[in-house]
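Structure ticket #2291
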Amino acid sequence: MVTMRNHEKMKDLWPPKFEMPHGFWDTYHPGGEWGILYQVKWIEPNRKGALPFVKVIVRWNDVDFRTVFSSDDTVFLKGLYETLRTRGVGHSLEDVGNLVVDF
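Resolution: structure written out below.
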């Protein structure tokens, strides 16, 4: 068992990289483990052969930021989704990174 941020399969995924805003006046996410995990969704794409992914919304400075986690290891991805959904929502990204996981 290891913390989420140090899990071997999370090394390219953590800390999350958030989609940047589209307008001049939009707020940028500072990067790193800033914000509160607000929402987690499991997405099954409609396209044949497309892999599922986890959509994550983080709220920082009263603005929602989006990112996705994807992997060809769907067992790992499902474990990540369940952990984020059941133990991460409502917690800071720093706390989420500290979660001890066994997936």
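Closing remark: The CA atoms of residues 23 and 90 lie 27 Å apart.
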